[in-house]
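During the reporting period, our protein records have gained a C-alpha cell line. One record among many is quoted in full directly below:
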Amino acid sequence: MARAELETLSTKELHDRAVARAERHLDVGFLWSLVKALPIAEEVAGHDEHGKIDIARPLALLNDFFKADEGELGEALRPLYVDYLEEQGDD
C-alpha cells in the first residue's frame, strides 16, 4: 500500500495493521521499537509526567502498549505505523 493510501487510514487501523503484520512475521524488532517509542509519544501527546513514570514502571508501559491506537498517544505513534507498513508492506 502506498504512503498516500496509508495516510488516509485511521490511527486505529494503522496500529492494528502494523501490529498484526509484526505478529504474523514474528517481527519482534518492530514491536520493541513501538515499546521504546511509547515514552516519547507520551511527551509528544502532552503527557510529560506519564511518560516519565512509564520509564520507571514496566506495567504502565505495557498498559500504554495496549492503548497505542487511541487518542493523542495513537496520533503521536502514527508516523511509526505508516513508516513500518510502507517499508514492510501491508500483507
Notes: The CA atoms of residues 21 and 88 lie 9 Å apart. The chain has one domain: 3-88. Residues 71-88 form the longest helix (18 residues). The mean pLDDT is 83.
